[in-house]
Amino acid sequence: MMNAQPDTPSATLNAYDPRYDPLVDAGPGHNRDYAPTYWIATAGTPPKDDGPITQDVDADVVVIGSGYTGLACAIFLAQEHGIKATVLEANCVSWGCSTRNGGQAQISSGRLKRSQWIKRWGLETARKMHAEVSEAFDVFRALILSGKFDCEPQRGGHLYIAHRPKAMSMLEAECRLLNETFSYKAEMLDAETLRREYVYDAEASGAMYEPDGIGVHAGKMAFGYLSLARELGATVHPSSPVMGWETHNGVHYLGTPGGTVRTRAVAIATGGYTPPGLHPRVKSRIMPILSNSIVTRPMSQEEKTACNFKTNLVLTDTRTLRHYYRQLPDDRVQIGSRSAITGADAENPKHLQLLLAGLYRKFPALKDIDVEYSWWGWVDVSHDMMPHIFQPDPSQAVYYAIGYGGNGVMYSAQAGRRMAQKIAGKGQELDLPIFTSPLPGHILAPFRRLGQRLLYRWYYLLDEVM
Ligand SMILES: Cc1cc2nc3c(=O)[nH]c(=O)nc-3n(C[C@H](O)[C@H](O)[C@H](O)COP(=O)(O)OP(=O)(O)OC[C@H]3O[C@@H](n4cnc5c(N)ncnc54)[C@H](O)[C@@H]3O)c2cc1C
């Protein structure tokens, strides 16, 4: 696999480590190759980057992590505030979730639905949060449709598919709420209309249609963000993991293998790959959860007809540990869902089998289809299921934007923009809880995986049995 072409040569890549585990390993590695994803295989040669840090340097603002969040932060720092950031990445550019996801952009952020926002924060705040994600979708749309890069957008909306009859009442209530309380034009589709006009998902009992939804080529989008960030004056340094962090008199000294980067402001955009020792304010604030994804060979015309795959809309189902799936522009099917609990178990074939069983339940005609790509990645789930874009200590210019819970393709653009506003000292009017409160900790942090095992069993009963 090729690394991005640096302006200065970088060392040979280290092998991709499929067993990497953020709760066990000290960090995501150094100069590692990409995961073997469909996106990296088909994104073309990565654009130029700025090569690793090779000496001590000064920077106005450092962004740690070069996924969508880190690159969007660099883009908006330059575009809206005239600040040229220095982005440090441990491995290849956008090596984490941002080249491994399902490429589904939806009008949401975090794992909570509108009804759950109201329960948690009350109606007024929920309405403001809806306005925030609506603005975020506009920001995202403008960025990816600016003509500066092509990430093969599949436009038209999102179908939230009831995986069994019981789920329809929840969808109907959510649809009513969206229309009546948020003036958002969602629509219900019955099973017959869904199967006839969109796709024959054999287990579907109907769906809710949301007009905002775009499928993207995840790798081309990451590479587009990289090119745009550099064009605007940011520098992006792969193979430069931050392995040490000291602060003296307001100056941060970030140690990388090639040199120390000195700066007054640091933005943390390390998602589910956040190393436990990076900074005390993010320690144990995220629960990294593995999600896996496969891409099949292109469907034959017979297979396509049997599945009645008329739509390229992005699709998710109503399981708590949902499936996300769609038909790609080249007639392949992509589908993903939950995976192993630990990195050590990630290669266990049973996780792939579970995902394939999900594919066959939906599309029995695909039971013999070859799977050409299979991979996994660590999703950053926060303990309150929402992202936080926050400055944890007002006396220090340190910020983070983390915690999308598997829903960051769209919102990471706005989160990067919001973090840029805070860094530039223009974030005073951001008064939603996701901007004004820290990522909550967890009192039983060391036992979270035990809890996760129990929760997965409970979700299974909830989704399939009860
Ligand atoms: C399999 C999978 C499927 C998904 N599907 C969807 C989807 O369909 N829709 C959706 O909305 N979201 C999805 N997501 C989530 C989505 O991909 C992310 O929310 C989004 O990419 C934002 O990522 P990020 O930039 O915050 O973090 P990442 O892309 O994970 O980037 C973090 C980066 O930080 C780097 N890093 C960590 N520590 C250091 C350090 N010490 N020094 C330097 N660099 C460091 C890492 O190497 C990594 O590259 C999915 C995620 C996965 C794993």
Short descriptors:
21% strand; disordered N terminus; eight-stranded mixed beta sheet; 466 residues; single chain; binds flavin-adenine dinucleotide; D-Amino Acid Oxidase, Chain A, domain 2; alpha/beta
Nearest-angstrom radius of gyration?
A: 21 Å
State the shape.
globular
Any idea what the CATH superfamily of one domain is called? D-Amino Acid Oxidase, subunit A, domain 2
Helical content (DSSP H or I, runs of 4+): 25-40%
> What are the distinct ligands in this entry?
flavin-adenine dinucleotide
Query: Per CATH, what is the topology of one domain?
Result: D-Amino Acid Oxidase, Chain A, domain 2
Helix-strand string: HEHEEHHEHEHEEHEEEEEHEEEHEEEHHH
- Unreliable segments (pLDDT under 50, ≥5 consecutive)? 1-9
The CATH class label of one domain is Alpha Beta
Distance between the termini: 46 Å
Q: What's the number of extended β-strand segments?
A: 18
What is the CATH architecture term of one domain? Answer: 2-Layer Sandwich
